[in-house]
Amino acid sequence: MPSMMSNDDMTESRRSNEITIENAPSSTQDNYSMKEKYAGGPPLEVVDHKDSEVLEDEEYPDGGLKAWLVVVGAMCNTFSTSVQSSLRCLLQCANFHGHGRDALIFGYVNSWGIFQSYYQESILQSSSPSTIAWIGSIQYSLVFLPGLVVGRLFDMGHHRSIFISSSIILVVATFLVAECTKYWHFLLCQGIVVGLGCGGIFVPTTAVISHWFKKRRGLAMGWVAVGSSLGGTLLPIAGKNLLPTVGFKWTLRIFGFILLTILTAANLLLKRRLPPRKLEGGILNLKAFKNAAYSIYCISAFVTFLGIYTLLTYVGVSATRIGISSDFAFYFIAFANASSLVGRYCAGSVSDRFGPMNVMMPFTAAAGILTYAWPFAETRSSLIAVTVIYGFCSGAYVSLTANPILEMGEMHDVGRRTGMFMSILALGALAGPPISGAINAATGGFKVVGYYAGSAVLVGMVLMATSRHLILGQISGKL
């Protein structure tokens, strides 16, 4: 008669079979599903076997109505956070006590350069470009910096409260900007409060997409990034045209109502798919930095962001200095954001086939070279050409920046891992424009600024290539 097996023996046998199957090579797995491709060092997190087994059994929808509605909600979020750079079109400043100007720059994150240009040329003429740039830098950095806390809260399952509270903060801050009359008012409301609201919205958005898409994640993230470019292109132009009709305060209030509508839709559409997991440790997962590829990629993003926003911040100012009218200089930010929209979509659509790093590297290199060329574009047509091509290339980089991080570990830890990455990146975004402004003030021009920013972007690209090589162990390969 066959020997009888106890329940414990049967359980152990099943576990043995599972491990054998898990380690067996499969021709259907691509680089994104092969964990060993992303090892490069010790595991990023030690988790309970049962939890890992549940996560591995989950299948990614990679499409379908629910998944694409989540993408639509994420686009609404990035559209709203772009108001951080679009909240400064040419707005009327007749009510800006005692300054007698016709316009006030209104731009959220992607259009901060418009704001920088106005303040530097009018209301804050006595302030250095470096000092003025701190408002925009704080905005940029606070989109990413809260990720350290927000990412951890997302992993713990608190995404809904994060979205709702951050949405309220952003809408209220937008209405408050209408009441600002001094520099420190704008620094507080526009730089800090708006930045914090955008940060609470942006970081969980990236993590939610990773719950729904795997093989088509690049395409999904490309569409999400398109929302930012749409906001950065349309909102400044809308503000400029609203201003003569309804005035400064009501233009901002209209923007506030637009944000209220869009963020309401986003809060209804964005849903996480995977349940929260119990994790070891607090808001930091320092074990992740034992992975050389992860650590170097974080440094790569920090260095790249020291220079990637310099051209967008100062192109309006540089345009007026070569004789282009301020009315037309306003549109250089719109040119960059419009071409960035195309770059973000194209990069996302091809990254699933070739790999995000393979797509980012050539476009990041091109963005660095164009930053070198920017100060030498001394005619309207040449500056437009540089701005449009730069917008396309930088958009390709920005849209895919987080994608490799999503793959460098387990999905249960994606919020915390992404949050640490975003916080490191934020330090570069914070320091970059003021450093460029200080260089401009010291040299009296933008050529050395271009050398600095272009070099930062190219060094960041080299570090990205190093991280890629640590993962693949060879020159060629999808990653």
From TrEMBL:
Protein name: Major facilitator superfamily (MFS) profile domain-containing protein
Main location: membrane
Gene3D superfamilies xref list: MFS general substrate transporter like domains
GO cellular component, one term: membrane
Membrane topology classification: Multi-pass membrane protein
Entry-linked PANTHER family: EG:103B4.3 PROTEIN-RELATED, MONOCARBOXYLATE TRANSPORTER
Location of the protein in the cell: Membrane
InterPro entries tied to this protein: MFS, MFS_dom, MFS_trans_sf, Proton-linked_MCT
Keywords of this entry: Membrane, Transmembrane, Transmembrane helix
Pfam families: MFS_1
Any GO molecular function: transmembrane transporter activity
Family recorded in the similarity comment: Belongs to the major facilitator superfamily. Monocarboxylate porter (TC 2.A.1.13) family.
Region feature (Disordered): 1-40
Residues spanning the membrane: 131-154, 161-178, 184-207, 219-238, 250-270, 291-316, 328-347, 359-377, 383-406, 418-439, 451-471
Amino acid composition bias (Polar residues), ranges on this chain: 18-32
Record domain Major facilitator superfamily (MFS) profile: where: 66-468
Species name: Agrocybe pediades
